[in-house]
Design goal:
The protein has a domain at 1-94: q2cbj1_9rhob like domain (Jelly Rolls), CATH 2.60.120. The protein contains three helices and eight strands, in the order E-E-E-E-H-E-E-E-E-H-H. The protein has helices spanning 43-52, 116-121, 126-133; strands at 2-7, 18-21, 32-35, 38-41, 55-58, 65-69, 74-76, 87-92. Strands 6-1-8 form a three-stranded antiparallel sheet, with no helix packed on it. A three-stranded antiparallel sheet has the order 5-2-7, with no helix packed on it. Strands 3-4 form a two-stranded antiparallel sheet. A hairpin with a 2-residue loop joins strand 3 (32-35) and strand 4 (38-41).
Length: 151
């Protein structure tokens, strides 16, 4: 699994750019839990990592992409500046890495390719299709799932 952060706006230290701990992906998976409305890695483990590993501020120009390993410890600070910091994060998971337990991330589902004529034959307008696509009641990625704390 890997993630890609695409900077829609310039990302600077001032507006809370992405930060990564260089080499932390080699530590394996670190348990995450909720702290208020945020999900994050175990703070004690992160503090120990920072004693041994470099914190890198990923300042990025608009349109720049950062590719990173799924286990790389990363975060961004609050944007307290006057400048927007919009970004898009996409996560990619190989089919053979399908989760074996139910989780808030969707499981692997094969896509069936159909010709465009099939879509047009259904008589669904682009607006109706968008409404179905954006329907929150069928989107498992937006449901909050508690992650058990590490023993």
């Amino acid at each position: 699994m890997l993630s890609v952060f695409l900077a829609i706006d310039p990302c600077t230290r001032e507006n809370g750019c992405m930060q990564v701990i260089r080499g932390s992906h080699k530590l394996g998976r670190i348990e995450h839990g909720f702290s208020g409305e945020q999900t994050g890695a175990d703070p004690a483990r992160v503090a120990e990592c920072l004693k041994r590993m470099e914190l890198v501020f990923c300042e990025m120009q608009q349109g720049t992409a950062l590719f990173f390993h799924a286990n790389l410890l990363h975060c961004s600070a609050a944007n307290l500046s006057e400048h927007p910091r919009w970004g898009l994060i996409c996560c990619y998971n190989a089919r053979h890495n399908d989760p074996f337990l139910d989780h808030h991330h969707p499981r692997y589902t094969p896509l069936v390719k159909v010709p465009a004529s099939e879509i047009k034959a259904k008589g669904i307008s682009p607006t109706q299709a968008a409404q179905r696509f954006l329907s929150q009641d069928k989107d498992n990625t937006t449901r909050r799932t508690e992650v058990p704390a590490a023993p």
